[in-house]
Amino acid sequence: MVTSPHWMASEAGARVLERGGNAIEALIAAGSVLAVVYPHFCGLGGDAVWMVSDDAGNAKTFLGIGQAAGNAMSETDIAVRGAGSTLTTACLVDSWETLLTYSAKTWGGSEPLAPLLADAITVAEQGFPVSPSQTFWFDFRAAESEAWPSFRDLFRRDGIQHQPALAATLRAIARNGAREFYEGDLARRMIGDLQRAGSSLTIADLAATRTQIAEPLRLPYGDTLLLAPPPPTQGVTTLGIMGVLNGLSPAKIPPDSAEYYHALIEAVKQAFLDRHLIADPAFADNASAWLLDPDRLAGKAAAIDPSRALAWPQPYQPGDTALLAAVDSQGRAACLLQSIYFDWGSGVVSPETGILWQNRGAAFSTDPSSPNCYQPGKRPFYTLNPGMALKDGRPHLVYGTQGADGQPQTLSLLLSLLIDHRLDPIAALTRPRFLLGRTFSDSRDNVKIEENIGADTIAGLTRLGHEAIPIGALSPLGGQAGVIRIGEGGVIDAAHDPRSDGGAIGL
């Protein structure tokens, strides 16, 4: 099974599985296609966070996260767009090579990189129909993008999108390997474009970029063991929400009720109060064990008032990304989120290579006392957190979502629906979602909730003290999630979000 937010990416992954490739290999093929057809959410100028497990539950996380430039930042403020936001390198391409090495050594994988990139090269060269998602985000940033050099020359609002320069870039990587992106002629041409635009990144910064392998964080929940990536990702936040929720007995609360959504929203608040502690563990203390201490989580659950909402004026982290997941014929599972941070990243394009660079450096804090303050070589706080749930020691759920601050919120809803209320993937993905806090389109600290939850439930949330604002059913604000479920006897079912342009393909 493979699932992604674009049907062309899902098909590329399915072709690898069909010829006997494993879940990691399938996702490299699917992810490279997605980097072409979903340029507003991900690309070669961005990062990736992976979670993989064999059929016995031996799981690893791979943090394909670029580090801050080696030159110290001179500005007191961090730019959100433009060259001043291109403060970190891009690690997606390096993660491909790292995962293929792991696949070959641990899973007996035999696929080289070149054939896995073949579909992406063809799509970039021959063109593809612009997706509804790309059209939406192109229109949303229409005024801003007028000031982004070369952007309008490369990206379209509608019709057929061609990316010949990106096809040539992918071909160079296929021919010379992933390190071509960091140390070869491609790297030099790419850095030349970025520096001409005003970026502080250097060829030495690219050469120092490496994917890190780490143990996932773990939290028991019901009859499953939840896995999430460690800091600097917000995986600990997702697990924290679930740990608090566990103390509220959500399985006993009707899932369409105001009380159910109140419990979820209040659990989110309790976990989000700790997000300021998340930072690169190479530069700051790793607070994960303390944040996930069972007694501490129980105390947070006890602090929730079932009859009244906690006031909520907290900082907002924007950003977008894309989820891909696969399970192969041996029961091995992989999922990844790849991202350029904000929709359209920094807006800085390398015309020679067709690469749009991320603005992940905007996630750093300018407060020198923050554990997430900017430092050369440091990785910023990271919203990406794909996950898995093990059951009886084996992969049971593989999941993730697009949506920055919305990621832990959407995942907590999905996990509760899947585990507490035993919904199947498509039913869980179709259920109405909420989004706490500010967004790019609404600066109020309210709770946006999809209107198909019903007027009575929205009124109930209002009575509980939430500023509940209805948004459209299946709204883009709800994110784009995907779920694969492995049931008894190895039976697999899956779905991708009806809010996306993709779906799941089973073989």
What would you note in describing this structure?
There is one protein chain. The N and C termini lie close together (6 Å). The protein contains 19 helices and 20 strands. It has helices spanning 7-18, 23-37, 92-106, 113-116, 118-126, 132-140, 142-145, 151-154, 164-176, 180-183, 185-197, 203-207, 235-246, 258-272, 288-291, 294-302, 406-420, 425-430, 455-463, and strands at 2-4, 47-53, 59-64, 128-129, 160-161, 212-214, 217-221, 224-228, 320-327, 333-341, 349-350, 355-356, 387-391, 394-401, 434-436, 447-450, 468-471, 481-486, 492-496, 503-505. β18 and β19 form a beta hairpin. The longest helix has 15 residues, at 23-37. It is an alpha+beta fold and 507 residues long.
Task: State the main characteristics.
7-stranded antiparallel sheet; 507 residues; alpha+beta; 19 helices; globular; single chain
